[in-house]
TrEMBL record:
This is ABC transporter ATP-binding protein. GO terms for molecular function: ATP binding; ATP hydrolysis activity. It holds the Pfam family ABC_tran. The keyword DNA-binding does not apply. Belongs to the ABC transporter superfamily. PROSITE patterns: ABC_TRANSPORTER_1, ABC_TRANSPORTER_2. Keywords: ATP-binding, Nucleotide-binding, Transport. The keyword Membrane does not apply. Residues 13-244 form the ABC transporter domain. It comes from the Bacteria.
Length: 265
């Protein structure tokens, strides 16, 4: 088992002593605290941790959708105070608009950015075809399954070819077969484009399968307890999950959470 690792290359995203505290009638509620993390350019980093540990809050902070209570986040060497340029986000829910067709939903991201949708139409159609939605561009979201809707939301996030992609448990509500299929497609797209990707998940196996490194967060206020480098050859097929090396990574991460009393062994 490789030792816990800290990224040492050129950083695309830097988090330094990042904290977020929410106000409530009963007093302050700290969500995350003391987060230090670098994402290398073109690196795939997953964050795993128990429910309520602040994983989604951390992603929103990197996306510039929440203000910091402490620390700083820099993207390409610039401190962010809002959504950075070249950003794509996929949320837990697909957030598709039921009154717009699937193609119109995918084009919405560039429309809101004030860009001409006609210039992106062919790319949108190409992405839909790649994700198995080539014959559904004129359907409406309520006509599609949950997995198909989430595929459309990924297409929307990829449309403007962002260099930084943030994904907040995008496959958590999907059945196992659909989840495997989308894991493979996401891995293929990342392999081709080498976007910097921050991926939030509850699934240890999913994190190990997809990632270059896996960061483990403890209970709220969430902080990063350990980072493990995943040294598995790419491209990865689902068969890698049957390997001894894969099992060792999963067991190591699970044991870490067991020591914290978060999961049982």
């Amino acid at each position: 088992m490789p030792e816990a690792s800290t990224f040492l290359g050129a950083a695309h995203v830097c988090l330094r002593n990042v904290g977020k505290t929410y106000a409530s009638p009963r007093g302050p509620v700290p969500a995350v605290a003391g987060i230090d993390l670098d994402l290398g350019a073109g690196e795939f980093v997953s964050i795993v941790g128990p429910s309520g540990c602040g994983k989604s809050t951390l992603l929103k902070l990197v996306a510039g959708l929440e203000g910091l209570s402490a620390g700083e986040i820099m993207v390409d060497g610039r401190r962010i105070d809002g959504p950075p340029d070249g950003l794509g986000v996929v949320f837990q829910r697909d957030v598709l608009l039921d009154w717009r067709t699937i193609l119109q939903n995918v084009l919405l991201s560039v429309e809101l950015a004030g860009k001409p949708t006609d210039a992106y139409r062919e790319r949108a159609l190409g992405l839909l075809a790649r994700f198995g939605l080539g014959s559904f561009e004129h359907r409406y979201p309520w006509e599609l399954s949950g997995g198909m809707r989430q595929r459309a939301s990924i297409c929307r996030a990829l449309l403007s070819d962002p260099q930084l992609l943030l994904m907040d448990e995008p496959f958590g509500a999907l059945d196992a077969m659909t989840r495997d299929d989308l894991n493979l497609e996401l891995a293929r797209i990342w392999q081709e484009t080498r976007k910097t990707l921050l991926f939030i998940t509850h699934s240890i196996a999913e994190a190990v399968f997809l990632s270059d490194r896996v960061a483990m967060m403890g209970r709220a206020p969430g902080s990063i307890m350990e980072i493990v480098a995943i040294d598995l050859p790419r491209p990865r097929s689902l068969a890698v999950r049957e390997s001894a090396a894969f099992s060792h990574y999963v067991a190591h991460i699970r044991h870490h959470f067991a020591e914290l009393g978060i999961v049982k062994e």
